Amino acid sequence: MLPGKTLETFDFAAVPMLSKAHVSAITAGDSWVGKGSNILLFGPPGVGKSHLGSAIGLALVEKGYRVLFSRTTDLVQKLVFESAIAKLDKFHLLVLDDITYVTKDQAETSVLFELISARYERRSMLITANQPFGEWNTIFPDPAMTLAAVDRLVQHATIFEMNVESYRRRAAEQAKGPGRPAQRATPANIQAD
To answer: Is 127 within 8 Å of 38 (Cβ atoms)?
Structure first.
């Protein structure tokens, strides 16, 4: 899990479409894990998807569940070389952060699809994504594979849309204070040392 990313430190007020009571009920009523159901968190970068995924995972660890939190690209690359999908069965929940950063590399997308298929209706996954399902063709090169992966993930899933302004952008603007306005880097204003 990510250090300091708990339900207590998550700013539910900044994501008004997300019900704290609903998220608390999910972590308290953990029957979804036993059923192999999933949680899918969607929204732009910087809105707290990773924080919330980590917090839910930590709450389950505190209840005695085995949870693995990993950036999706890291786990997929490891699985390509180790063929260890079966070893992940010991985890009640896999938290796959930033699934949409997986590239269209055939080996990576194949192992990701195999992982989703292997856990389907058996073990739970919590997935964070910056892109809606309609744009997942950037992950899976084959439209049929995209459709099959999405179908398996959503059949028994709770989906949270977190479409708000980025925390990081908001914090940067608040910290900016008086001074020169920020400029975009362009070839004209970049100087070599």
So the answer is: yes
